[in-house]
Write a structure and sequence with these properties.
Elements (H helix, E strand, L loop, with lengths): L1 H20 L10 E5 L4 E2 L3 E14 L1 E7 L5 E7 L5 E8 L2 E7 L7 E14 L3 E13 L5 E14 L10 H9 L19 H11 L20 H9 L19 H16 L22 H13 L18 H14 L2
Parallel strand pairs: 2-10
Antiparallel strand pairs: 1-3, 3-8, 4-7, 4-9, 5-8, 6-7, 9-10
Helix pairs in contact: 2-7, 3-4, 3-5, 3-7, 5-6, 5-7
Length: about 350
């Protein structure tokens, strides 16, 4: 059995070598190729892709090449319904290669052909583009031709806890921009609270702030994970302390505090001064009296510009804690305004 398998392996590699050197005698005709998947989005990161050919004249053996991000994709398996012998997929230099050949003196496949399927698993949340670059086909006379396919498909591994969430689309777009990350590879925790340091860090990263300096906050200790981003946000004028010498980095941020940081970020990025910004209307929320005096203008400006919405149509919820989902959504709106 082992000897037979070795012979078949040698055969298919010889066929693949033929692909590279044989005279291209197969007419291109109207052959077309497509790559499909039953679902482009999965919370477990596993996708099965089907490769198909139309108007195929004589397919005895083939070698398929797919371009991928090898750092984020692992190969689970490749299969084909065509009788014969397959070489398992090989991954090298961001390219998957797998091949298959029929065995013996038989005709090649004709017409519309299911060439094969490949099952992949994305390791991290976000988009992964799969490019089917080409297929080499050997016919039953061992003549060969390379077909350029130029087919691509975008697969999205979503965080498991984002399925059905109102902010899923916005969060995944910001993940693809590498502005935000999950709590781990499989969870984003969209409804968890955001701390003041975390939101300052998100703003620093989103605006790509570079310069930092001295800060008056005794509770932003040297070596803390948020030290650099808080310094950058302070130098850019995005943040204030809860006292002259305290920032309260681990304190959950309120929605009015988040609004203030957001408006200061917009002012910094556009070169504007909040003092010179004009509020055209009044705040129309039933809980507007709960908004602190220092925050009334920034809340009005943010709501008018569309950067912030109420938590409901009637309530702004200024003293409620902002969630991770809310923080990502407002960041996305800010970056869209700054384009």
């Amino acid at each position: 059995m082992l000897k037979r398998k070795l012979i078949l392996t040698t055969l298919i590699y010889n066929v693949c070598l033929t692909l590279a050197v044989a005279t291209p005698a197969i007419a291109a005709g109207d052959a077309k190729f497509e790559m499909t998947t039953p679902a482009k989005e999965a919370d477990n990161g596993e996708f099965t892709i089907t490769l198909k050919g139309q108007n195929i004249e004589d397919l005895f053996a083939y070698e398929v090449k797919l371009g991928i991000d090898a750092s984020n994709v692992e190969i689970i398996k490749a299969t084909t319904a065509i009788n014969g012998f397959s070489v398992p997929p090989m991954l090298k230099n961001n390219e998957i290669t797998f091949a298959h050949t029929k065995v013996g003196k038989v005709d090649g496949e004709k017409g519309n052909v299911d060439i094969g399927t490949i099952t992949l698993k994305a390791k991290r949340a976000g988009s992964t583009i799969i490019n089917w670059t080409n297929i080499k086909i050997v016919d039953s006379k061992l003549d060969s031709k390379v077909f350029t396919t130029n087919a691509s498909i975008n697969l999205i591994k979503i965080f498991a806890d984002l399925a059905g969430h109102w902010a899923k689309s916005d969060i995944m777009q910001m993940v693809d921009k590498k502005v935000v990350e999950g709590m781990d590879d499989d969870h984003f925790a969209p409804d968890s609270n955001v701390t003041r340091a975390q939101f300052a860090t998100l703003l620093s990263k989103a605006l790509d702030l570079k310069d930092d300096g001295q800060i008056p906050f005794a509770d932003v200790t040297s070596g803390a994970w948020f030290e650099s981003s808080v310094k950058k946000a302070y130098a850019a004028g995005l943040i204030n302390g809860v006292a002259d010498d305290a920032f309260a980095p681990e304190q959950n941020i309120t929605r009015e505090e988040m609004t203030a940081m957001l408006l200061r970020a917009k002012a910094h990025a556009t070169g504007m001064n909040i003092d010179n910004m004009t509020v055209n209307g009044s705040i129309h929320f039933s809980d507007e009296t709960a908004i602190n005096d220092w925050a009334k203008k920034v809340v009005a400006l943010a709501v008018e510009s569309g950067l912030m919405n109420g938590r409901t149509e009637r309530e702004f919820a200024p003293q409620e804690h902002a969630s991770r989902a809310e923080s990502v959504v407002v960041l996305k709106r800010l970056l869209a305004e700054l384009k």
